[in-house]
Model the fold of this input.
Amino acid sequence: MGEDRYWRRKNVFVTGCTGLLGSWLTLRLVEEGANVVGLVRDLVPKSNLNLSGAWASINVVRGSVTDYEIVLRALNEYEIDTCFHLAAQTIVTIANRSPLSTFESNIRGTWQVLEACRHTPTIERIVVASSDKAYGEHPDLPYTENTPLRGAHPYDVSKSCADLLAQTYWRTYALPLGITRCGNLYGGGDLNFNRVVPGTIRSLYYGESPVIRSDGTPLRDYVYVKDGVTSSLTLARALDREEVRGRAFNFGPERPVSVLDLVRLILSLANKTHLAPKVLGKDRIPGEIHHQYLSHAEAESVLGWKPGYSLEEGLRETLRWYEDFFGRTSVSAPPSESCGLI
Done:
């Protein structure tokens, strides 16, 4: 960080600020001296935003990302120059079970934010968080930014739509935006314990073997959340360059790892190898993509971005975060053999 004062006194609006990426991004922006306004629908006392103390350093607007009037009021009254739109329903199984709420938050929420930004004269840059899931499933790997957006199930369709909406607002209205497409984010502060990393760590905390629902072979990118933060900040700054606006960039480590190998690595780093994972080998559920990982060549060549953390380094920091978290909060034990891991 040093003498870099880019974010000092900038007025920044963050949707999804209590989530995994949003909480770490908000904390970083506060540290950099930005005036942060966070849109919060639900109070989450155990969120990283609250536990880190960043909550007390930002202006909080209570409301839903789907409420146009609330978003428009916040953007204009706080004279926002930078918007990070991260709010989304991010769990595939929830999207399958409750597609309408997922479509509301991920699709309607995106067009409401973009439309509000269109009517906010102080806006200078907007980062919209898409996902690798926006591509859907393709046989050719790794995915590049030219891979078609072809979601087929509720969650990946919602991300395809949000991504296309952002592109529409650039092409039609010249909104100064960029789109991030990250691999699977992990790190401290993820309270969705049906995800593989926090679910495995919680199992270890209770002395239980982690459960893998599939046969353990699905390949994924795993992006440490602090690298996710730098991807968002790097793209936001690059939007000062006209040639970057309207573009989407992949952000991933280019080191795909199987679910089983990831769980085994966590066990090794935690010195819990005696808790061998239980591999159920169940059939894939709708919406779960088997193999998916990204090329970040475009982000590196255009933005100068590349991951700052190896998988091992990121997991070590994550384990330390959850060790502290479980030590000072009460978290329910996982039901037997139902961690819901991929």
Remarks:
- The first helix runs from residue 20 to 31.
- Residues 335-340 have pLDDT under 50 and may be disordered.
